[in-house]
Amino acid sequence: MLIPKNNANQMRTRILVKIVEKFLQGRFADADRIPLELRPKGGEVSRCCIYKDRAILKYRCMASMGFAPEDETDELTSLKEYGEKALERTTHAVNKLSVITDACSGCIRSRYLVTDACRGCFAKPCQINCPKQAISIVNGRSNIDPDKCISCGRCQEVCPYHAIIRVPIPCEEACPVGAISKDESGKEHIDPEKCILCGKCLQSCPFGAVVEMSQIVDVLKLLADENKKVVAMLAPAVLGQFPGTINNLIGALKKLGFADVVEVAIGADITTKKEAAEFLEKMKNGEKLMTSSCCPAYYKAADIHIPEIKPFVSHTRTPMYYTAELLKQEQPDCVSVFVGPCLAKRFEAESDPNVDYVLTFEEIGAMFVASGINVADCEPEEFAKISCAQGRRFPVSGGVAGAIASLVGDKAEFKPTAINGLNKANIKLLKQYATKGSEFNMVEVMCCEGGCVAGPGCVALAKKSAIMVENYVKTAPDLNEQKD
Amino acid sequence: MEKVKVKICCGTSCFVMGAAQIQVLEFAPPADIADKIEIEEARCMNHCKDTTAKYNRGPFVMVNDELIEEANFEKVVNKIREILNQEK
Predict the structure, then answer these.
(1) How many CB atoms lie within 10 A of CB A206?
(2) Host domain of residue B69
(3) Which DSSP state fits A477?
């Protein structure tokens, strides 16, 4: 998608930069200045007044320190105190998405709205066709009673003047699994039992009301500790996220304090091999379908929301899993930090003892900015292991299925399709594949449209990053030629 | 008519703070300015290291010889349109 991040998203980056700055300058002694610095007196105001802006910024800072806004017990708790608490904790931040109630604008309840184009006509098809008698005539025009309206859309269909419009609620529209909905007061809430942590609501809310709990403070603390050996595991979507080569980036991460940097594409190569073997076995056993399993938001969705597809989800683990397993075998005393585009990886990491922390590219980017590191100027370094073309192409839509196809070759018939972006329609489609069958026997599912390069934690444009991924693929060896 | 030169700073600081998103201009520029601009990816122009400014005012974008601070897609497009209108 080619829609640039909105101001709300850019503000998130600025907050992260400030958090790192305040940590580096004095372990959050000055953290309560962040809202003031981001909304200085006489400057730009984006909500009703500067004070509301600052109050909401405080909640966003809390989230960036790893505390959920709704867990606030005393409004007078300062950011300095939250910072200290974050530095004291030994387990990382709570792992969820939340809505800052005061930032949520409570978008209109009824999804349909009568506009000025209404002529107050004689026929009144809207009123006649409304199944709930929600439409009355007020001041010579149709009016929808939001308490009665069930958002069926009949009125919009029948209006000859196209005077009735559908007003979507961005977060609800974006959520593929119906996990975000209004409470009695009209404000949105996320149901943690239903949420798959895909981050689509976070990207779509025009008021920046949805926040995620960052682990950035936890990692900053470890990086500052000389006795800790922190290793970054770089997801393959990293290409293009920071101008400069991937070799410059290794140097830049070492400057930040990482002891070592490994590529998750190595794990993706292992996933490819195992997934191809699993596919061949399944087909031999007469199974009709297999779906990929490397997208954590997808397999969480399959688990909770698409029980029909669950038996077909591959049992092969994700590239992160194999990368972390290898890393902990080689360096058992290290702290492993997955660095990627994904928020759902945080949930995956919870059940993986080999992954200690998860950061996004945006969070690593904030560390570079606050530390004054320009990636392109850093001393280039090499990875200890070289990844293959197959693993490197995982983060673009079609990459996973393509990798498996290259290993399956002519050993079995391979009929792939890709679910490029999980949404309500695609969830229905997956259910259909499971229950009614299809012409495909391999379904690759990626929750983000375009693949991981379009993840919510990315810095670069998906299109730009995808080009860089393809260039990086071209320089890699083929997994088929690799000797075990 | 000479094209308007848009120089987007792609130092890490500017890129992370939002220059990455301004690159939409390369892929999907508004139709009215699409063939009237020339985009350049610049290395760090060192504006972020300006110590007289209290805060980092990035991302920075140069449109012809004018510097835009805290640039975003909207600000850059408005500046390009302003220059094009002057030339008319």
Answers:
(1) 12
(2) 4-79
(3) P
Q: Is the CB of residue A320 less than 8 Å from the CB of residue A355?
A: yes
* Domain membership flag for residue A2: no
Is the residue at A80 inside a domain?
Answer: yes
Residues in CB range of A239: below 8 A, 6 or more apart: A246, A465, A468, A469, A471, A472
% of chain A at pLDDT higher than 90: 75
Full 3-state SS string of A426-442: HHHHHHHHHHHCCCCCE
Distance CA B67, CA B60 (A): 7
Cβ neighbours of residue B85 closer than 8 Å, sequence gap 6 or more = none
Structure-token pair, residue A166: 């559908």
- Distance CA(A92)–CA(A219), nearest Å, equals 9
Average pLDDT rounded to a whole number, residues A153-168? 93
Write down the H helix ranges in A208-304. Answer: 216-224, 246-256, 264-284, 296-304
**Per-residue pLDDT reduced to its tens digit, A288-300:** 999 999 999 999 9
Report the pLDDT value the prediction gives residue A108, as an integer from 0 to 100.
76
Q: Is A74 exposed, middle or buried (0-12, 13-18, 19+ CB in 10 A)?
A: exposed
- Does residue A403 register a pLDDT over 60? yes
The per-residue pLDDT for A94 is 74
| CA dist., res. A216 & res. A60, Å (int) | 13
CB distance from B59 to chain A under 8 Å? no
Measured between alpha carbons, how far is residue A461 from residues A54, A251, A252, A464 in Å? 29, 23, 21, 5
ipTM score here? Answer: 0.91
**Alpha carbons B49 and A395: distance in angstroms, whole number:** 34
In this complex, is the C-beta atom of B46 within 8 Å of any C-beta atom belonging to chain A? no
Q: Is B43 helix (H, G, I), strand (E, B) or coil?
A: coil
Structurally, chain A folds into a number of domains equal to 3
* Identity of the amino acid at A15: I
Does residue B45 sit at the A interface (CB-CB below 8 Å)?
Answer: no
Reported as a single tens digit per residue, the pLDDT across A197-239 is: 999 999 889 888 999 999 999 999 999 999 999 999 999 999 9
Q: Do both A297 and A410 map to the same domain?
A: yes
Q: Which residues of A touch B70 (CB under 8 A)?
A: none
Q: Has residue B87 been placed in a domain?
A: no
With an 8 Å Cβ cutoff, is B55 touching chain A?
yes
Q: Do B12 and A366 touch (CB under 8 A)?
A: no
Residue A343 domain-assigned (yes or no): yes
Q: Do A244 and B44 touch (CB under 8 A)?
A: no
Sort residue A199 into left (φ over 0), alpha (ψ -120 to 50) or beta. left
Q: What is the arithmetic mean of pLDDT over A158-181?
A: 92
Residue of B16, B51, B72 to mutate, testing the A interface (most A Cβ within 10 Å of its Cβ): B16
Measured between beta carbons, which residues in chain B are less than 8 angstroms from residue A372? 13, 49
Q: At what angle do helices A319-330 and A264-284 cross, to 10 degrees?
A: 120
CB A98 within 8 A of CB A88: no
Give me the mean pLDDT over the A455-471 stretch: 93
Compare all CA atoms of chain B with the CA of A457 and give the residue at the minimum distance.
B16
Distance from C-alpha of A416 to C-alpha of A290, rounded to nearest angstrom: 10
Which CATH number do you get for residue B60?
Answer: 3.40.30
